[in-house]
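Comment thread on ticket #2218

A.B. wrote:
> Attaching the input chain for the structure job we discussed in standup.
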Amino acid sequence: MILALAGGVGGAKLANGLAAVLPPGSLTVAVNIADDFKHLGLTICPDIDTVTYTLAGINDTKQGWGLEQESWAFLDSLATLGGETWFRLGDRDLATHVQRMLRLRAGDTLSAITADFATRLGIAQAIVPISDDPVRSFVMTDEGELPFQDYFVRRRCEPRFVAIRYEGAESARPSPALRKALDDPGLQAIIICPSNPMLSIDPILAVPEIGARIRARSVPCVAVSPFIGGQAVKGPAAKIMAELGLASTPAAVAAHYAGVIDGLVIDNADSAAGNLPALPLHATDILMRDTDDQRRLAGEVLSFALGLAG
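C.D. wrote:
> Ran it. Output below, let me know if you need it in another format.
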């Protein structure tokens, strides 16, 4: 049994690789929910949907989010009527959000809905929200505090990042499926995917029971760096680090996850640059260009993690 923590496109890619190389039913992907929000009366769960679509093989591989062969008639009509179009909801994607909202209103939990959607899409591994309680990110910027999606999508991360808070994290409880994965006597390793540390992984660790249990783990926990040569593969991670006065290096990633990880997977380019952290490292090509790369990297990450178990 393997537990992966994921959010965003990079997290979804490695989760997809892990799902492919592990036997069915032996992977639990715990997904960030702090970027969920209400839009047009619907509950939007971007990270859950990105992971779900990717593992189902129906994601838009070019843009990294949304569904393949998407159309935008709804959004075009909404614009004609003066509606908000800054957050792009495709016609096919819209069905996910409508059905999720109907089921939430009927009393189903986010965990139950997510598991059912995964089953219907033919996914053999478990995708679980970190909690059925709401956790929401708010970003403090040089222009004041912004709800996460206003910062990330509406403003395209343009304001300077100052700090972030995870509203609701302190009172949130782990979802039943995540608690089950952490309790599983067959758990062999925890993998932190190459997701944005502050935007995708920290909200998971900010839930007290989750953070405490991962820090007190009895199995190896390894992270995959989201940086290659000082730059983020995708997204604003490097920009945020720079605005906080931090370098986008393996040493900075290791320091950020101090007390959480036992080892770090880094890119060959960063290994050659030197100034490496004093913990076990595995250097390889961490750029996931296609599904073959995802499987290759997943296999290397698993071997590295299980090797740390002795």
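A.B. wrote:
> Thanks. Noting for the ticket: The chain has one domain: 2-135+174-308.
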